[in-house]
Design goal:
The complex is a heterotrimer of chains A (294), B (232) and C (267). Chain A has 294 residues and is of the alpha/beta class. Chain A contains 8 helices and 12 strands. The longest helix of chain A has 16 residues. Chain B is an alpha/beta fold and 232 residues long. By secondary structure, chain C is α/β, with parallel strands linked by helices. In chain C, the strands form 2 sheets. A 6-stranded mixed beta sheet of chain C has the order 6-7-8-3-9-10, with helices on both faces. In chain C, strands 2-1-4-5 form a 4-stranded antiparallel beta sheet, covered by helices on one side. In chain C, α4 crosses α5, α5 packs across α6 and α6 runs parallel beside α7. Classes of the chains: A alpha/beta (294), B alpha/beta (232), C alpha/beta (267). Chains in contact: A-C, B-C. Chains B and C meet through β1, α2 and α3 of B and α7, α9 and α10 of C.
Chain lengths: 294, 232, 267
């Protein structure tokens, strides 16, 4: 159901072509930040304007769209963007990871393995991994061009010197295709290994910073580390209180004013799918359908 | 025998640009030679240019004419025309200079100040320190001072450290600028002994000594600088 | 006075060769026809007053600025003499991180002020591919020791350091890759006299221990005397006098050099 006053997926065709050219270049040079003429979108910067533009540029009428924010399909941001495309493109939307062809995400990679027919679109606030230590854009671009990445290890060194281990827990820098160091957007480092050799195409859009970058399918993505401080995934040492999953990324939820807490899957679709398959966590004695409507 | 030092018609003039370009001729027609194992003492009144000649041989003062031939690593080199790095090489391998005053090396212990030239020639630190200690002992520097930087020493002590540093290496040419100036009789005698040992080792020396007794004891030959004094 | 017993080795191949270097900014001729050769292990001081062109010359020599005429060539570690003007940027920057050091007058220019001392020293190692935290830290600690910074300050950022410590840290950061040539721009400028003496003494020792070649720009003749084997006196963009340091300072020939030398306050 296309709203008559908008072009398909909101952006005009010239703009989408411009963005697609940037995307093609980004795919051709994995991990390289391609500048593009980011548009004003009907939502503020920081709400995913980069991801939305990428999604708008690649969306076709037959696509099935899923939008998640911190793993959840049900947060304001995810719902708004999903509705935005329902209204402007009339595409089918879903919360199921397996059914989606385009998944726009903020800060998570779904737990369910992605497949070759899917595109994962990341919303990126700050695309430049070197900015923390080198604020000059002219200099960081030169460093990328020349592959000078010693500085990235300086950041990891500082972590170890200060905390005894690499304390960077999200936006953990990776090297793509053994060439460019890339900021994987603020996903938890738990998700980093999922980017490596992934069958799906991964696209990154930074609206405010006007950059697009990509990881083509089946590309090597290596998390930076030291020989004696190797990269490790991190998650809370618990199982999901709802679906009992022991290997998904967990959110900590404070349940009262006395500091009681529970851990639940950050990926709502994954959690619900498991519950529907009969998995039960410690806080979830009742069947899923009942607890949902309780 | 090839002389170690062969100076011919060397001359030196200072031009004082800050005083309207006054020319101050210092020496002219300086010619003499020094054989291995020989100690030549420059004589003449103060201001006749003795120190200037010594500094010219060391390459500290530039030479305006003539030649200063020196046997360096098996060949003759003319210091009047040598490149700066050749002069550095000469100072490293051939010519040692014992001045009246120690150029204070801050924070370095006296023992290491003396041992340093040996270390540079590849002697181990232990052996260099041992030989340095032996020399300091001969020159009557009490052992409790060895670990201290010489900048805190009295003038006579500093001079003896300086002498030890100059005499410890085995360079074939030594230039001595008033080595005994502020020493007592006992230490003067030690310096005379050291000079005699260097002669036996075949070292060629040029010295400036005001003390008649010391001069008499070490000089093989006197070269009167008065004849080189360049009348303006 | 620099210890002559540890002066440059008798090496006949120059490390760096400047030929006819000239640079002008509009009508201002900052550098005119400068030529010289620097040999391995040799310390050259470039002296002159502000505006004499010595800092411009340093920029030209370190390939941070292109000359209008003339060239600088450098003997790479493989022994081949290369024209710095013809080096690619990647090669030039690599040289800067490995075989060269650059000590700035203002340590904030040469250090990452918000990053710990250990990482400041370790950065060059990480840049050339060192990937073992423990070893990097150990190397950094031993360099801090060499520049007389207490190892328990290794995790402090240089913004908490005194001026003299910052300068010593900057030196350690530069020397950790064992460069063969270090450029220094007024390395003791802005420091207290007592701090200067300690720094100079330390640099003197390091330079001779490591057999470093160095080009030191300074307006302070005492620094030149302590650190350098050779000195080049500049005035109005021109080299007016050059020679052994003690020669030039004890027996200055040119009017300008005599003026400079006579302006030194007696110690």
């Amino acid at each position: 159901m296309n709203a008559p006053t908008y072009n398909f997926a909101y952006l005009d065709e010239q703009t989408k072509r411009m963005i697609r050219r940037a995307i093609l270049k980004a795919i051709a040079i994995p991990g390289y930040q391609v500048p593009f003429a980011s548009r004003e979108m009907p939502m503020p910067y920081g709400w995913g304007t980069g991801g939305v533009q990428v999604t708008a540029a690649i969306l076709g009428t037959n696509d099935v769209l899923k939008v998640i924010d911190q793993g959840s399909d049900d947060t304001t941001n995810a719902i708004s963007i999903r509705k935005f495309f329902e209204k402007t493109a009339g595409v089918v939307t879903t919360t199921s990871t397996a059914d989606a062809t385009v998944i726009q995400t903020r800060h998570r990679i779904p737990e369910a393995p992605l497949h070759a027919q899917q595109v994962l679109v990341y919303q990126v606030p700050i695309p430049e991994p070197l900015r923390y230590l080198e604020p000059r854009e002219t200099e960081t671009r030169r460093m990328h061009a020349l592959g000078e990445y010693g500085l990235m290890h300086v950041k990891l060194y500082e972590d170890i010197a200060r905390f005894g281990h690499i304390a960077t827990a999200y936006a953990y820098p990776v090297k793509v295709n053994a060439r460019y160091v890339m900021d994987p957007s603020p996903t938890p480092k738990f998700d980093n290994p999922k980017m490596d050799n992934c069958p799906a195409l991964q696209l990154f859009g930074a609206g405010r910073e006007k950059r697009i970058y990509a990881i083509p399918p089946y590309t090597s993505v290596v998390s930076l580390d030291f020989e004696d401080h190797p990269f490790t995934r991190y998650k809370h040492d618990a199982c999901c209180a709802l679906c009992d999953s022991g290997d998904s990324y967990l959110d900590e939820i404070v349940t009262d004013n006395k500091g009681s807490r529970m851990f639940v899957c950050s990926d709502t679709d994954y959690c619900e799918t498991r519950q529907s398959q009969g998995h039960r966590g410690s806080e979830n004695a009742a069947p899923y359908a009942e607890s949902k409507h309780a | 025998m090839i002389p170690m030092i062969d100076i011919r018609n060397a001359e030196k003039t200072f031009v004082m640009h800050l005083q309207d370009g006054i020319r101050l001729p210092v020496v002219r027609g300086v010619s003499f030679h020094v054989a291995p194992g020989e100690c030549v003492v420059l004589s003449g009144p103060s201001g006749a240019g003795k120190s200037s000649i010594l500094k010219m041989i060391f390459g500290n003062y530039r030479c305006d004419g003539g030649m200063i031939g020196v046997q360096h690593l098996g060949s003759t080199i003319d210091l009047a025309t040598a490149e700066p790095r050749q002069i550095l090489s000469v100072r490293r391998n051939t010519i040692g200079y014992v001045s009246q005053f120690l150029r204070a090396v801050p924070r370095v212990a006296a023992l290491d100040v003396v041992a340093e030239p040996l270390l540079a020639t590849g002697v181990t630190r232990d052996e260099a320190r041992e030989r340095a200690g032996a020399l300091l002992r001969r020159l009557n520097i009490p052992e409790r001072l060895w670990k201290l930087p010489p900048s805190t020493f009295s003038g006579g002590e500093q001079q003896r450290v300086n002498i030890a540093r100059g005499f410890i290496s085995s360079l074939p040419i030594l230039l001595l600028d008033e080595p005994t100036a502020s020493l007592d009789a006992v230490n003067r005698a030690v310096v005379v002994e050291l000079v005699a040992e260097k002669k036996r080792d075949g070292v060629a020396m040029v010295a400036i000594v005001h003390d008649d007794e010391v001069r008499h004891l070490i000089a093989d030959r006197l070269v009167d600088v008065t004849s080189f004094a360049a009348a303006a | 006075m620099l210890d002559v017993t540890k002066a440059p080795r008798d090496d006949d191949q120059p490390l760096l060769l400047a030929e006819g270097l000239s640079k002008s900014f509009g009508r201002l001729q900052a550098c005119r026809e400068v030529s010289f050769a620097l040999y391995p292990g040799e310390v050259l001081a470039i002296v002159g007053e502000s505006g004499s062109g010595k800092s411009t010359l340093l920029q030209l020599l370190s390939a941070q600025m292109a000359p209008n005429a003339g060239s600088v060539s450098y003997r790479m570690r493989d022994g081949v003499m290369r024209d710095l003007g013809a080096l690619g940027e990647a090669e030039r920057r690599f040289l800067f991180r490995t075989d060269w050091g650059f000590v700035h007058q203002d340590p904030a220019m040469g250090l990452r002020m918000a990053v710990s001392a250990g990482a400041n020293v370790g950065e060059r190692l990480m840049a050339v591919g060192h990937n073992h935290y423990g070893k990097i830290r150990q190397t950094a600690a031993s360099w801090l020791e060499r520049v007389e910074i207490s190892v328990d300050r290794i995790d402090d950022a240089p913004k908490t350091y005194s001026g003299g410590m910052r300068q010593r840290l900057q030196i350690a950061r530069n020397l950790v890759t064992e460069p063969r040539l270090v450029f220094m721009d007024e390395p003791t400028g802005g420091l207290d006299v007592s701090v200067q003496a300690r720094l100079l003494d330390m640099m003197r020792t390091l330079v001779s221990e490591l057999g470093l070649a160095a080009i030191v720009v300074t307006h302070d003749l005492a620094v030149a005397r302590l650190l350098s084997h050779r000195v080049m006196v500049m005035q109005g963009g021109r080299v007016v006098e050059t020679g052994l340091t003690d020669q030039v300072l004890d027996d200055p020939r040119e009017p300008y050099t005599q003026l400079l030398v006579s302006s030194i306050l007696p110690a």
